[in-house]
Amino acid sequence: MEFIFNKKARIAFSILMLIGVIAMIFGYINDESSHHNRFWANIFINGFFYFGISIGALFFLALQYATEASYMVVLKRVFEAVSQFIYVGSAILIIFFLAGTFQWHHIYHWMDPEVFNIESPAYDAIIAAKQVYLNQPFFWLRTLLFIGVWCYFTHLFRKRSLLEDELGGTKIHYKNITTSAIFIVFFGFTSSIASWDWIMSIDTHWFSTLFGWYVFSGLWVSAIIFITLFVIFLKGRGYLKEVNSSHIHDLGKWMFALSFLWSYLWFSQFILIWYSNIPEEVTYFITRIEEYKLLFFGMFFINFIFPMVILMSRDSKRMSGYLIFVGIIIFIGHWLDVYLMIVPGGVNELNIGFMEVGMAIGFFGLFLYIVFNALTKAPMVVKHHPYLEESKHLHI
Question: For the chain, what are the domain ranges?
Answer without folding.
Answer: 10-384
